[in-house]
Design a protein that fits this description.
211 residues; six-stranded parallel beta sheet; two-stranded antiparallel ribbon; 10 strands; 22% strand; globular
Amino acid sequence: QRVDGTAPMLILLHGYGSDEADLLGLADHLDPRWHVISVRAPLRLDMGGYAWFPIEFTDTGLAVDYEAGDEALQQLAQLLKTLQDGTGNSAADTFVLGFSQGGAMALGLLLARPEDLGGVAFLSGLWSRQYMPATAPAAMRGKPVLQTHGIGDPLIPIAAAHASRELLQELGVALTYREYGMGHQIDADCLRDVNAWLTARLDGDSSEIPS
């Protein structure tokens, strides 16, 4: 907590087909200094739950509606401004954690507003060359990013995670990468490391994941 009483803010972005309640339980396992806010995606799905943008699994791979993703990103950027205006948080004490599709939105938000975020936790997500800028914003360089993934992930194979890791390295972020013997989820070991990484951000610790 800052001297003015402002608590550091952690924004949670859920995955495809879920809602804001899905990740909220993480708060009980994270450093209590965080002011945790979980956000619901804008697109209501017929099957139930919500999404940031439509996706379709085809014979040739994953089809993504990038235009809808851009619209959702603009809404998130506006929400970020509204939240920071209301709480008094700045880039130094505002972080975003996204799971799966929410992870892509978290990274997209960091690219769009690097001057307004301290960093991002990108869990079991997929990053695409389609979203890579011709030139990474200067403010992206050195931004802390944690990427975690399950070796047995049936939805986003570990090879895709490795490809995403290479793209993130191109952006010049301070990347911490960890993989676990899990599926498309956040298991206990992953959660322990996420908490350690986030706590290190609060404490000004520049190490990747303190032991």
